[in-house]
């Protein structure tokens, strides 16, 4: 089964071509970052996937169903900007709407509300919320149903470091449970913390970072860093401290390593990708500022 499939998708606004015969598929659950300059079409693309925008030509399927299938809402959520919130309703009102629509047990709501620490302001009207509070509410609403596909438009915006950490943990857990997350962001260091799976939108085409930089260097933390030398070739591992090392491998190999060590005494506790710079690749791809 494919999670997402775009076939020859084209979209223009007047003379401006946003998507140019895009072919793209996601077949296994992943956390994918969508990266491109302002005005390139990230929101347009997510709108199209969520059936909030029309394609000029091509087809989009989500979970092997046309993206126009109304019932897909049970399997796909989309966090857009704060214009989707009702200013005169409380956060709690919003949560109850989602809880009723998706028949969610109270424990699920308690878990996610607790995870993001938003319980203390849920009784207030949304119009009194700060940018970060609105972001946290929007993220909570999108993640509550734990759908198969979650799309988040710039979720990191306005979040404090603790909230970013909660987001990171929540997305990782959802992905571990089989959900796919697509998010856009301009914060490239946070992108590198959240995922290896970066896809650039370049002149109307989707370009996976793996096609540009086949290996990634990760700074990993684990109880005994020397253990890595028993699993990987010498040139792939560089010990930094007894509990820290750099590992240079393709992203898929890193994912396999994490899975292999999960739950063992050698579990990888943290891994930060310092690929030959997502940022460096970004500047190489978008140096001419010609997208806008
Ligand atoms: N309804 C519309 N009518 C005409 N042009 C539009 C419409 N919606 C978006 N655009 C244009 O399409 C381009 C892509 O916009 P989009 O919001 O998808 O970019 P983005 O990559 O999400 O940008 P940002 O990073 O700034 O959020 C922009 O030039 C925008 O002005």
TrEMBL record:
Coiled-coil residue windows: none
Listed name of the protein: ABC transporter ATP-binding protein
Any one Pfam family match given in the protein's UniProt record, by short name: ABC_tran
Top-rank lineage group of the source organism: Bacteria
ABC transporter domain residues: 4-228
Entry similarity comment: Belongs to the ABC transporter superfamily.
Molecular function terms, GO-annotated: ATP binding; ATP hydrolysis activity
Origin organism lineage: Bacteria, Bacillati, Bacillota, Bacilli, Lactobacillales
Keyword check for Ubl conjugation: no
Alphabetical keyword list: ATP-binding, Nucleotide-binding, Transport
């Amino acid at each position: 089964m494919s999670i997402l499939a775009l076939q020859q998708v084209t979209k223009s606004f007047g003379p401006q071509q946003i998507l140019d015969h895009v072919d793209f598929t996601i077949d296994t659950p992943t956390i994918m970052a969508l990266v491109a300059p302002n005005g390139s079409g990230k929101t347009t693309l997510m709108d199209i996937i969520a059936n909030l925008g029309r394609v000029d030509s091509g087809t989009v399927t989500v979970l092997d169903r046309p993206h126009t299938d109304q019932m897909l809402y049970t399997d796909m959520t989309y966090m857009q900007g704060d214009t989707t919130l009702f200013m005169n309703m409380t956060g709690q009102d919003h949560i109850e709407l989602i809880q009723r629509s998706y028949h969610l047990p109270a424990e699920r709501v308690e878990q996610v509300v607790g995870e993001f620490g938003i319980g203390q302001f849920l009784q207030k009207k949304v119009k009194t919320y700060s940018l970060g509070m609105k972001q946290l509410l929007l993220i909570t609403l999108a993640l509550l149903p734990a759908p198969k596909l979650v799309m988040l438009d710039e979720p990191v915006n306005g979040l404090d470091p603790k909230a970013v950490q909660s987001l990171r943990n929540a997305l990782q857990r959802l992905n571990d449970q089989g959900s796919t997350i697509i998010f856009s962001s301009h914060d490239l260091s946070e992108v590198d913390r959240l995922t290896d799976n970066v896809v650039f939108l370049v002149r109307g085409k989707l370009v996976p970072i793996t096609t540009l930089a086949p290996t990634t260097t990760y700074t990993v933390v684990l109880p005994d860093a020397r253990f890595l030398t028993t699993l990987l070739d010498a040139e792939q591992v560089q010990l930094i401290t007894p509990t820290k090392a750099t590992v240079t491998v393709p992203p898929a190999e890193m994912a396999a390593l994490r899975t292999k060590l999960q739950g063992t005494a050698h579990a990888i506790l943290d891994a930060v990708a310092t690929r030959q710079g997502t940022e460096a690749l970004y500047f190489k791809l978008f140096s001419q500022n010609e997208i806008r």
